[in-house]
Write a structure and sequence with these properties.
Distance between the termini: 66 Å
Number of helices: 22
Radius of gyration: 27 Å
Shape: globular
Strand order of the largest sheet: 12-11-13-14-10-15-18
Structural class: alpha/beta
Number of strands: 18
Length: 567
């Protein structure tokens, strides 16, 4: 008898799982077209173990709560394609008494069991495994069963005797079986980057070296050092995957790679530029189907409450400021995702469109045909929008159009490059927008940075020195006890940090701020007035997160050097 959703909901309810949590996971699965097990992991509201227990009660299958990675059989794993395992949430574990023991995360995985029976000519014994446990075991199993990027390079080095053999001039040669090691190396390089949670991959040729670096949690780290004789082939392979012209080596090129890796849809934005010793490649990794939420970006307290209230306003401008890579786009995506609804028309103009959001009209800038932020913004006003997101305010025309859009009854989100929130007001005036228009249209400015989160497995407490406190404008009375610092362990690849979170300052356009803007006061005066009214600076928010054990003083100093003291 098939298992009905209503039965699963009741079984989860019996274990104390709220209907709202189950409905959220189910809705996410339907909206994104992903298996239920993946939705449970993404939504983070239903305990995977609870789902496994619920399915066990309904199906009669046993639950395997833990898997010993050391006992997994590499030969079994190699026989079953990784993509098949990911797609169905299935992992062959080991053979016991002539039976193949298979772990599945949900009942949908049973569709793949016939393949395993035929493949191994053995009866199959099924066990339900919590999705997070199965996910970790699958990663460990295929890591053990597959060759690393470095070993693939060693294979290529043995197979190719002359570096001249690798100077490829056309795409067909890269499909030659003799070039398979290079293809596997590039695939392994991408897989390793995704496994290590890298946001960017840098392939950098030098006279005597070829270096591959990953940007992990905002910091570049050298990961691979292939032989320099492979530089032309590796770059050529990446360019073919991105649909670029491999014969053109004198000009920069931009392309995109779309791949399904580890059961996840991945977009890679590829940029190549000619340098002295070859072509330099940078790939930005973007995961399709990412879930954006204001609850996940690190914004909290009064800032989150105020920001949430303002994104519900019918008109005005909300700006997010900060340098490249500070998470501005994520904040804006999270804001529009929160207010996204069938009765609201949301349009965006971006350069480029990094993530696709269902239900939102997204346009990509194309200067070659005069499709700019300013021209798209003018066109949007004839599309009956409620909310408009402009990727960046770069010039006077875009700024003036954004102001006019807000004054004619639209809510406008955008980003601007300033060091802090107060600088955004002055920057708009410098662009040529009249101060009274800035004061009447701007609702507020969020400034932000990204700090690395301490690894929960190895962080250690310590008592900060007086000098360390003085660097942050703090006293011993404000930090009477211990805080946490990075150490490094196997879980975080000896870095000491795992993941990132935002730190924020929010400057609302109060009556005081508006008067100062209209009087054409500078950013410093506006900031001082805002702080007098209770605004917390980036460093203040960072210190709060240090005291909460989320990050370290070193991180706050690193990302807020221009902020001075805490105020």
């Amino acid at each position: 008898m098939p298992i009905r959703r209503v039965d699963v909901a009741q079984a989860l309810r019996d274990q104390g799982v709220a209907d709202a949590a189950w409905n959220k996971a189910r809705a996410l699965a339907e909206k994104q077209g992903i298996p239920l097990r993946q939705a449970v992991l993404k939504a983070d509201d239903v305990n995977p173990a609870a789902l496994a227990s619920a399915l066990s009660r309904l199906s009669g299958l046993p639950v395997l709560e833990a898997i010993d990675h050391d006992n997994l059989d590499p030969d079994l794993v190699r026989s079953f394609p990784l993509q098949h395992a990911r797609d169905h949430g299935v992992l062959p574990l080991y053979v016991v008494d002539g039976e193949l023991v298979v772990g599945i995360a949900d009942i949908a995985g049973m569709a793949a069991l016939d393949d395993l029976r035929v493949l191994h000519s053995k009866p199959v014994r099924i066990a339900l495994v919590p999705a997070n446990v199965l996910d970790a075991a699958t990663n460990a199993a295929y890591d053990k069963a597959s060759q690393s990027a470095q070993s693939v390079l060693a294979e290529a080095d043995d197979a190719v005797e002359d570096a001249a053999d690798l100077n490829l001039e056309n795409a067909e040669l890269l499909d030659d079986p003799n070039q398979a090691p290079i293809i596997r190396f590039v695939n392994a390089m991408l897989a390793q980057a995704i496994k290590e949670r890298a946001s960017d991959i840098h392939v950098e040729p030098y006279e005597k070296d070829l270096i591959v670096r990953y940007r992990i949690d905002g910091v570049l780290k050298e990961s691979l050092r292939p032989s320099v004789k492979f530089k032309n082939t590796i770059v050529a392979r990446v360019k073919i995957m991105a649909g670029l012209n491999i014969a053109e080596k004198r000009l920069p090129q931009d392309g995109r790679i779309r791949r399904k890796m580890g059961g996840r849809e991945i977009d890679l934005r590829v940029s190549t530029v000619p340098v002295r010793h070859g072509e330099r490649v940078v790939m930005r990794i973007l995961e399709k189907g990412s879930v954006f939420s204001l609850d996940r970006i690190g914004m909290g307290g009064e800032i989150l409450t105020t920001f949430r209230r303002l994104i519900q306003r019918p008109h005005g401008i909300l700006l997010v400021s900060g340098p490249t890579g500070s998470g501005k786009s994520t904040t804006l995506y999270s804001a529009v995702s929160e207010i996204n609804a069938p009765d609201i028309n949301i349009l965006t103009i971006e350069d480029p469109v990094e993530y696709e959001i269902q239900g939102i009209g997204q346009v990509q800038v194309n200067p070659k045909i005069q499709l700019t932020f300013a021209s798209a913004l003018r066109a949007f006003l004839r599309q009956d929008p409620d909310v408009i997101l402009v990727g960046e305010i770069r010039d006077r025309e875009t700024a003036e159009n954004a102001v006019q859009a807000s004054l004619t009854g639209h809510l406008v989100f955008s980003t601007i490059h300033t060091n802090d929130a107060s600088g955004a007001f002055a920057r708009l005036v410098e662009m040529g927008v009249e101060p009274f228009l800035v004061a009447s249209s701007l609702l507020g400015v969020v400034a932000q940075r990204l700090v690395r989160r301490l690894c929960p497995h190895c962080k250690e407490p310590y008592t900060p020195s007086n000098e360390e406190l003085a660097d942050l404008g703090l006293t011993r009375a404000e930090v009477p006890g211990e805080v946490w610092r990075a150490v490094g362990c196997a879980e975080c690849n000896l870095i000491g940090y795992e993941g990132r979170s935002g730190i924020y300052e929010f400057l609302p356009a109060t009556e005081t701020v508006k008067r100062l803007v209209m009087a054409n006061n500078d950013a410093g005066t506006i900031k001082a007035a805002a702080m007098a009214e209770g605004m917390r600076t980036l460093r203040d928010d960072g210190v709060t997160k240090v005291l909460a054990g989320m990050t370290s003083f070193d991180e706050i100093v690193r990302v807020t050097t221009e902020d001075g003291g805490a105020g």
